[in-house]
Amino acid sequence: MPSGEMLIKLFENFKNQDEEGFAKIAFEIIEEEQKKNHFLLADKLRRAMFSSTNTINKTPKYINALGNLPRDKDNNMNLVDIKYSDKEETDIILNADIHEKLSSVVLENQKSEVLRSYGLRPKRKLLFCGPPGCGKTLSAEVLSNMLNLPILYTRFDSVVSSYLGETATNLSKIFNFAENGSWVLFFDEFDAIGKSRDNHEEHGELKRVVNTFLQLMDNFESESIIIAATNYEKIIDHALWRRFDEVIYFDKPSEKEIIKMLEFKFRTFKHQLKFDGLVKDLVGFSFADIERICQESIKKAILNNVRIVDADVFKEVLKKEKERQSLISKFSE
Asked: How far apart are CA 124 and CA 132, in angstroms?
């Protein structure tokens, strides 16, 4: 039980509507329960603190109770953003293998105290890889919501510095900050710092960054989930792969998943489409590509005052998307 003095301060701060003061005492109580090995209670208290402000892109005032967000010394920019996700399982289409792995991660972390009593730890370090637009970021947001944890989103535009040693220092700042709470610590476009040290074209600074990240991963003691996502898994350093508890590959959708995607995107808009007949033309597109085609078809129908998507509208949009993809490929070679 927290001390009487702590409880008095907690209630006084609540009465005075001192959000930061209230949160500071609340986090002290959570930490105290954690030290007493009351892991389940500490976890419930932590979830209660964050779930009450579960709004996208809303940074609560009480975050200052954890300390200021880490910043880059050179440009004084934040190294991370804090985001709150409302994405649910129904917002994403996943194959059975990915769904099983994500569900396992959620279950293990929800039952972490039980595992800990047997000397076991839940999976907390995940690598998401595969082509762009196939659900890596969205899956991180879904996990965040399911576990009631805010996302600590790493800003590589600030992290990667032109000054010798500063990139590694920035990574250390992020991990040090993350240890003060429970988060989904998300490294999108992870290849920006995780490239193989065997690549002779890379300079020594990047190799030092990889070494630093390896050390930070090994020494990270927190209830947080670490997720690294990359579209270029082949260039990731081999030693980094071994640091992750689970590796999940997000591939482009199968024919069955394409149909599910079409059903999902047209569930609230009238159409005259036979999805089975459209599948062959959509094989090879990512989930994001198909979503764009569906949205453009709906917009076109609305702007033409038709209010219904037929095959002609859909195929016209599909043709333009193929032209767009061809143009992208031409200039990215």
From this structure: 23
Q: How many CB atoms lie within 10 A of CB 211?
A: 14
Q: Where are the domains of the chain?
A: 4-51, 68-249, 255-332
Q: What is the pLDDT of residues 253-273, one digit of tens each?
A: 999 999 999 999 999 999 999
What pLDDT score does 47 carry? 63
d(CA 148, CA 264): 25
Single out the residue of 311, 269, 291, 297 nearest to residue 93, CA to CA.
291
pLDDT of residue 126: 98
Pairing type for strands 125-129 and 246-249 reads: parallel
Top CATH class, 255-332: mainly alpha
Separation of alpha carbons 212 and 240, rounded Å: 11
- β-bridge mates for residue 83, sequence order: 151
**Cα separations (Å) of 61 from 19, 22, 43, 53, 323?**
7, 11, 21, 10, 47
Ranges in the chain, pLDDT < 50: 52-62, 64-65
Q: Decide if 22 contacts 15 (C-beta within 8 A).
A: no
Return the half-sphere exposure (C-beta side, CA atoms, 13 A cut-off) of residue 289: 22
Which parts of the chain fold into alpha helices (H)? 4-15, 19-35, 39-51, 96-110, 112-117, 136-146, 156-159, 166-178, 191-194, 204-219, 238-241, 255-265, 275-282, 287-303, 311-332
d(CA 251, CA 136): 10
Architecture of the domain delimited by 68-249: 3-Layer(aba) Sandwich (3.40)
Strands 151-154 and 184-187 come out as: parallel
